[in-house]
Request: fold
Amino acid sequence: MPTCLLSALTSDFITLAHAHQDPPLCANNGGPWTTWLMLGGRGAGKTRAGAEWVRAQAAAAPPYAAQRALRIALIGETAHDAREVMIEGPSGILRHAPRSERPSWTSTRRRLEWPNGAVALTFSAEDPEQLRGPQFDAAWCDELAKWKQPDAVFDMLQFGLRLGPRPRQLVTTTPRPIALIKRLTADPRTAVTRASTYANAANLSPAFIEAVIGRYAGTRLGRQEIDGEIIEDRPDALWTRATIEGCRVDAAPPLARIVIGVDPPGSARKGSDACGIVAAGIAEDGTVYVLEDASAQGLQPSGWASRAVALYRRLAADAAVAEVNMGGDMVGAVLRQIDATVPVKTVHATRGKWLRAEPVAAMYAQGKVKHVDPPMPLLEDEMCDFGLGGNSSGSLSGGRSPDRLDALVWAVTELTARGQGGGPRIRSLWDGPVVGRGI
Reply:
């Protein structure tokens, strides 16, 4: 095959597109669609499909577009994501546009301009007010399920989609069970396509397939991030996703005390429980801030102890709180071997996991615990999957142990326990570490 013909074929996206990247024929109600909702796992080809759809809108290229869109909105989770993923990324608009149709990109104006006069503007989902005023005849919303203010931003966009005979929007996202995704899925004017990571496996790294898919396939996180499913809350769970979404904050205030909760595994064998390592701090007003989930699986005792101590040092924490049911005196000893100056408080579980977690879940419901961004998906998955399930002690789906949740519970319980020894020291997370400080 001549090189020029091969090049033309490989740049003709619609010829090589997967089924989920083909334009839908109709909406849920059988009529023309207004919103194309593309739900897919990581690496399923959502960004490439979005970039090609936008390019087709600007060029009036079938089968994606019947008429040219002159004003297009491009909305990413942040301004950085809009630029680095949607515009300049490996699957972005600039990377795959033919030279003769390539738009010029002016980053200072957040503006793409095609030779035929079509214009696209980028927006950050962090600022709904950016969308107040401009008007469009097409829009591409990327990773909508991750937006911090999805309803406010999406609502502002709808007021601006008012140009042309039929304004349309494409939403590409890995799903999460937020209200807006559910509402769009049920909307009669929405066309929904779905795809798992496996659909695009031929274009992904074999190491990614083996390591990531091999590890998470079949888990709640895997069903969401790989299979592209909308995972609903477990009916008997102590936490709901709505509760966790409602407790997110951008940053913590100055904290009086920070502790590292540690729930050691019983074994370092492959497939064994993870070592739960979660950092949390308490502010002067009594509000607890969950700072980071540094849990890890498959580590030897020296490995998870080093990880916990590194987090302790980085956050200038006050103590490590470690459960000793599985490892006894070894747990404290291995932490002190890594750093003898770390104050280690060992705790022994005398009640079931459910009874220990219940008061902490009540604090969340009362708004007394906050999660500091960025999200901690593995920890939050465990929280929303922890229920009685016929076990009075509580467990995750399939009977797995909630190691990250256990570490969280120990940390929050320690911070909120009455009669703690030692006075608090108000400081910011940006203060440097204090070596050898007691509690």
About this structure: The chain is about 30% helix and 20% strand. The domain at 3-225 is CATH 3.40.50.300 (Rossmann fold).
